[in-house]
C-alpha cells in the first residue's frame, strides 16, 4: 500500500506542484496546498486503482479547488512574489510568460494553464471545470488576447 501511494506521488507531484505555484502567491501556501491535495488522495484509497487519466483529472480538480479555498482564507495576508521562489515553475516556459499568466483573472488563467502547461484538450478542460466547451473556447481566446496585450506592453 505504501509503495502504491509513493508511486502516485512521484507520478503526479510535478503536475500538482505547477498548479499550486501558478494559483497561489507564496511558496509556503503552494506547499500547504500540495500537501493537502496528497492527504486527500491518501484518504481516497479507492481512487488509487483508477485509470491514470481519471486520477489525473481528479487531482487537477482537487488541486484547483484547494488553491481557490486557500486564496479565500488568505485574502488579507501578504504574499511573496513568484521571483522570490527558488523553484522554477516550468523550465520550458519563459518567466515573463508565466508571470503574465499568473496575472490573468482566474477564469482565463485556469484554461490557459490546463491547455498549454498541462496538455489538456478543450473537451477535457470542459469536464474538469464543469463548463461548456464553447465557454472554454471563449475564455481561451480572451485569455490569449489579454496575454498578448500584457506581453506586448512589457516589451
Task: Describe how the helices and strands are arranged.
Layout: H1 2-23, H2 27-43, H3 52-73, H4 95-102, H5 106-117, H6 122-129, H7 133-154
Helix pairs in contact: 1-2, 1-3, 2-3, 5-7, 6-7
List keywords for this structure.
155 residues, mainly alpha, globular
Describe the structure.
With 155 residues, this protein is mostly helical. It contains 7 helices and no strands. Helix 1 packs across helix 3 and helix 5 crosses helix 7. The longest helix is centred in the N-terminal third of the chain and has 22 residues. It is globular, with a radius of gyration of 16 Å. The N and C termini lie far apart (52 Å). About 3% of the residues have low confidence.
Mean pLDDT: 83
Low-confidence stretches: 85-89
Major beta sheet summary: none
Count of strand segments: 0
C-alpha Rg, in Å?
16 Å
Beta-strand residue fraction: under 5%
Helix coverage percent: over 70%
Distance between the termini: 52 Å
- H-E order: HHHHHHH
Apparent shape: globular
Tally the helices: 7
Helix/strand/pairing category: mainly alpha
Summarize the structure.
The protein has 155 residues and is mostly helical. Helix content is 72%, strand content 0%. It has helices at residues 2-23, 27-43, 52-73, 95-102, 106-117, 122-129, 133-154.
Amino acid at each position: 500500500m505504501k509503495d502504491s501511494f509513493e508511486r502516485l506521488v512521484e507520478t503526479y507531484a510535478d503536475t500538482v506542484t505547477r498548479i499550486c505555484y501558478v494559483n497561489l502567491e507564496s511558496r509556503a501556501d503552494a506547499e500547504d496546498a500540495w500537501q493537502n491535495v496528497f492527504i486527500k488522495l491518501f484518504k481516497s484509497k479507492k481512487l488509487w486503482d483508477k485509470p491514470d487519466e481519471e486520477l489525473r483529472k481528479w487531482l487537477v480538480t482537487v488541486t484547483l479547488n484547494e488553491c481557490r479555498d486557500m486564496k479565500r482564507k488568505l485574502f488579507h495576508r501578504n504574499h511573496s512574489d513568484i521571483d522570490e521562489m527558488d523553484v522554477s515553475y516550468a523550465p520550458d516556459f519563459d518567466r515573463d510568460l508565466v508571470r503574465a499568466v499568473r496575472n490573468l483573472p482566474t477564469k482565463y488563467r485556469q484554461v490557459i494553464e490546463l491547455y498549454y502547461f498541462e496538455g489538456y484538450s478543450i473537451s477535457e478542460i470542459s469536464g474538469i471545470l464543469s463548463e461548456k466547451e464553447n465557454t472554454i473556447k471563449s475564455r481561451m481566446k480572451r485569455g490569449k488576447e489579454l496575454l498578448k496585450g500584457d506581453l506586448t506592453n512589457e516589451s
